[in-house]
Amino acid sequence: MLLKTDQESLCLTCHAGTGSTLDVDNGVSTANGKALRGGGFTKSAINADNPTAKYYLNVARGSVSLEEGVIPALNVPVATTSSHGMGATGAWGLGLSGSAAGTLSSPLECGSCHDPHGNGNYRLLQTVPGGVTNAAIAVSSIAVVSNVATVTTASQHYLGVGNTVTIAGAGAPYDGTWPVLATPAYTTFTFAVTTADATVTPAAATAKNAGQAVLDAPSATARVYTTTDYWKVNDETTPNITVGTTTNVKAFIGSIAAWCTQCHTRYQTGRSGTYANATGDPVFMYRHRGNSVKNTNVTNNVAYTNQVNSPNCIQCHVAHGSNATAVSSSLGVNFPGTTTVEDSSLLRISNRGVCQMCHNK
Predict the structure, then answer these.
(1) Mean pLDDT (whole number) for 71-99
(2) With contact defined as beta carbons under 8 Å apart, do 238 and 251 qualify?
(3) Counting beta carbons within 10 angstroms of the beta carbon of residue 271, is it exposed (0 to 12), middle (13 to 18) or buried (19 or more)?
(4) Which residue has the higher pLDDT, 89 or 143?
(5) Which of 66, 73, 167, 338 is deepest in the core (most CB within 10 A)?
(6) Whether pTM exceeds 0.85
(7) In CATH, what number does 137-211 get?
């Protein structure tokens, strides 16, 4: 019998220091006192004020690049300054590019992200997060060249590289569920299909996001829930997958950005590298790339466990909550397009230090 009246309270009967060893409220494991990889909702144990970094001369790029970053964990968690707030009805970046801010179809709850009964995904992540408006979009045309189909949609899509998409109503061989290879524009995406070169204009075809699986480690492999270094964001216990055309990518780093951007949609749609390409969106005109994947942890000929040094959502942000501070030049800055003062935005280092970690000063 479910005695709790709200979902969060029910989950926290185990995940707040009693029951489960994963105390997501306070950001630590009660089994060993170590910091949880995703931080915590009320407290977190990120040593956000004391990161260190080592750089090297990247001859190929003609600049200095990051070799190794370290963000230590605290021994004792402290109060968070930002968290994935339960009850939220919006998500930063939700909506079509150039449109007003979108809203979730249901408020954010623990079960929006996690399936309590299990589904084979990493951390029980829902394939499609709850609250996401997942409507089918009309397909205008499908053009195949060298076994790559480019689909043009009648309106902007929410798809990202690595998402799966279901095509219906176009007929063989196009109907089915396919991994997205690329998103060249806001109204185009590609997938691989074995067929002759052709262009079709189906009368009633649709494309619909089929979600993003994040494959878990094999059942016999011990899960890694804690960390001593918040810069080492990958989880190398997860299996290798192919993302777009990149092979042998660890499933966590290869899937998590595409999973996050099912809610934070503007950060995945369209071209990568929009820092140099105006999107036409008045608030999100330029955006940092967040969907990079790496199939190696070797930097400057040195292998670092779980380190990727790659512009990915999870490289900068934690999932549950951060205790990083926003002072000095980052204090009192409003979220773009709003009068709301920014907080630490789930960042791993204080004062937007994640920027300086890669773009060293």
Answers:
(1) 90
(2) yes
(3) middle
(4) 143
(5) 167
(6) yes
(7) 2.40.30.20
